[in-house]
Structures are given as structure tokens and as C-alpha cells.
Amino acid sequence: MSYLALYRKYRPVRFQDVIGQDHVVKTLINQIENDRLGHAYLFTGTRGTGKTTTAKIFAKAINCLHPVNGSPCGECEACKALSSPSNIDIIEIDAASNNGVNEIRELRDNVQFAPASCRYKVYIIDEVHMLTGAAFNALLKTLEEPPKHAVFILATTEAHKIPATILSRCMRFDFKLVPTEKIAKLIADIYDEQGKKYEKEAVGLIARAGEGSIRDALSIADIAVSYGDGTLTYKDVTEILGSANYETTAELVESVIDGDTGKIFGLTEELAAMGKSMGVLIKDITSFVRDVLVAKTCKDANSILGLPESRFKTIADIAEKSEENRLLRILEIFAEAEGDLKYSTHPRIVFETAAVKAASPASDGDISALLSRVSAIEKAMAEGKVSVKPDKKAEEKVAKEPPKAKEKTFGEDEIKGKLLFNLGSNGSEMLRSTLQDVKITLSDDEITIVSEDKGVYDIAVIPENFERIENALKEFGKKVKIAEPKREKILSEIDAATERMKKIFGEEIVIVKN
Predict the structure, then answer these.
(1) What are the tens digits of pLDDT across the range 255-292?
(2) 412-488, which class in CATH?
(3) What is the spatial distance between Cα 501 and Cα 497, in angstroms, rounded to a whole number?
(4) For 129-238, where are the E strands, in sequence order?
(5) Cα–Cα distance, 126 to 51 (Å, whole number)
(6) For the whole prediction, is pTM greater than 0.70?
(7) Rg (CA), the chain
(8) pLDDT (tens digit per residue) in 62-120
(9) Are 140 and 132 in contact (CB under 8 A)?
(10) Given this structure, which CATH class describes domain 180-241?
(11) Architecture in CATH of 6-175
(12) What does DSSP assign to residue 178?
């Protein structure tokens, strides 16, 4: 099989060819030129951003006899030896399939041997997060104090799964998602080299579909090369990606914004009959609504979107009649539906529920939906489509009635709060603290302070304290009363009854038992 996939054929062999990772490349080149190499590196980031490629270039560069601007020259004996399939000085290990402790013990034993033809023996461990706990423990000491001729490069997409003991022994480099415009330029250069004709918008769509991953984008570009002999169009790429027809997607989004649920069900049936995946359809709608939001909020929107003029006009027309908060709410609903789709056995129902919910802001209690409805009413009133007519009969009735004095009412909690505040303000902090847990009851002309704690009652009824309480509640214009605790009241009533019985029957006859 002579054909090589594009991402393999155009894999960078120099640091200068690595795209979108300038912060990593610059540091590594400076280390090589200043001979300040570390013994362990961790390359982490999303798939397809150049971690393994950079590791291979770095492995060659630190062994190159005549590096050019920090990159391997490719012509010296070391570079030629390392380019040979039989070289044993750059060892690549796939931790996904070699993740046991025995494989790491074997690595630990072999690392002691000097390199065969180079200065450094480099171990590139890909998907290192897949190692078992025992394997990490076996690697630990070697990683901390390897032989002078050994360099470790660990690559992973999930750095959070690596033990802190390993992370602390490595120089960490985070690989970023590659900007869309850089991926688009790379694909365009490859197509130019291969003589493939293309529309600029088609290449832009491939780059966006890669979502920051060069390998993903080049895989799509590889399929697109074989899709047809003519010019690669935007429509061709949408068909390759399995996206819904652009016009149908626009129609569906417009139906959601217009609240036409009948049309939503009809279009969904049409797309389902064509075999469109509900997951892809949700992504298409989310992407389309996002484009509408960009067109709604940005002045030079198409410089961001990179769409054909006819398609951008469709987006702009929908944006003109849409409201920003409404678009945000639609995005939220479909983003939530995308998450629900992973756990549902009925994807179509999830999609249709989300679409109908997004199309019915009147039944949506979310704040974005409410703001959208208020904005729609304001817009309609500004355009004269809605007018508010005064009720003349109601106005006449109000005019005839004499104005009523507005009575202010106070609740029990408010009165208690005022009592405590005023006592604190007047310097009665001790009394304020004592009354912290009392309850307030109200009648038409009386404020009653209630506590079941006799100690609180005894303090409150002291004349000077009672006077302070009255002054603190003076503004409410009601009589203040301190209620005796129920238990104490009952006991005093029993005592009074006992005394009466003793007077009637004599003390020697009446016996009180507890």
C-alpha cells in the first residue's frame, strides 16, 4: 500500500513546521541551543495538536550533530541513524497497550544501557495516563533520577489522570488548540501542492470541523480529495461531514425562531427519513444559531464566519428579525439536549422536545426567555404594532374616589428586628442580647413579647429595662406587654389555689404532693 494519509505525509520534521504551538517550540529550541536539557518532559493537550510530532522532532534535535535553528539538520550521521526503522535510540511506547508494571520494569532495566549511535536515548511514552498505578510507581524513581544519557517524553490528552508524584518530576508543556485560520492555510497549501481545486469557503469549513485538531482536519481533507474530480465546494464538504442540507437547517432554525411547531415536526420527519443523525442535527442547529448570533452582534461578521455570500445573506436576514436573548436561550436549550442525547434511547424525541421548547418562549420560565418576550413587546410597541388603550371608566372611577391615606403595616419579624436594632443603638447591648430569642405577637393595639425562659422574663420586667423596651418600640404607637412564661403562670395559679384551700380546710389537712 503506497498511499500515505495526508496527516502522515505532511507530518512536520522541523520545529519551524509545527503549527500553532509557538510557546512550546520556542522554549524547546532555546533549551537545545543553550544546552539546558531536562530529563523528563510532559506534553499534554487535545488530540491532533502535535504532541507526538514535537516529541519526535525534539528527540532528533537533541541528538543532531549540526542542528539548524534548533531543528535537526536531517543530513548528519545521527539524523540518518535515527531516521532508520532499525534505530534503537528513540523508543516509542504505546502506554494504552503496554500499561502493566512488567513493561515498565523492563524499560527501567533497559534504560541503563547507553545509546547505540547517539548522545541520548529518548523514551516517548504516548497516552501515558493509561498506565496502571503499579506501573507509575515502578516508573517513579527512574523518572526522577535517570541516567545522564536518558530523556523521557510523556504525552497525554488527560493530564489530570497522572499522579502528582509523576507531574512534579516533569517539565510540563500544554499544547493549545490550533486556530482555524492556520489549519485552513495548511490545507490550502496541501491542496495547491497536489493540484486540487477548491473553494475558499470549503477549506474554511474543513478547518472549522477539525475543532482545533490538525489531524482531524487533515483526515476530513483527505476524504475531500477523493470525493470528486472537480472543484471542492462548500456543499461537498457538508455532505462529507454528514451535515443536514444548509437550506433545510436554515428553514428549521427559522421555524424555531418563528414558533412554527408544525413545520418543525415536518422538517424533522423529512430529515429523519433521509437518515440524518439527531446528534449531528443538533450540532448543525447549534452551529447555525451561533452564526446568527455572530451576525447579530458583530459588525464585520463574515470575516469571522467565512461563509459564501449567499449563505451569509441567509444568516443576516434571520439575525435581523431575531432577538439576542432569544438566540442565547435557543443555544442553551440545544446544548442541554446534546448532553441528554448521550443517555437517551429515543434521540428523535429529545431533539423534537428541545426544538418545541425553543420555539415556545411563552411557556419558558427561564430569565433569558422572559427578557426575550419583554424585548419583543417593546419592539412591537416601538413599531406601533401594539398600543395600550387607557380604560376610561376605570380612570373616571379613580378620579371620583377621594385619595386614601396609605397605611403602613408592620410584621412581627420587622418589629422584633427594630426592637433589637434600637436597643443596640441606644447602648442597651446586654438587654438586646437577652431578648435575641423572644417572639413577638401582635394585636390591634398591643405588642406582646413572649419568652418561655423565666430568666428572660425576670430581666425584661425590671422597670428600667421595660422602659428601654417601650422606648425602642415607641414608633409603632402600640402598648407593650411582657408575657409571663406559661409554665410560671400555671405554677403561680397552683400556688394561689393551694393557699385558698389551706385557708378553707386548714394547713394540717391540705397536703401538696409534687
Answers:
(1) 998 888 899 999 888 888 877 888 888 988 998 999 99
(2) alpha beta
(3) 6
(4) 150-156, 171-175
(5) 9
(6) no
(7) 40
(8) 999 888 888 898 888 888 888 887 888 888 999 888 888 888 888 888 888 888 888 89
(9) no
(10) mainly alpha
(11) 3-Layer(aba) Sandwich (3.40)
(12) P
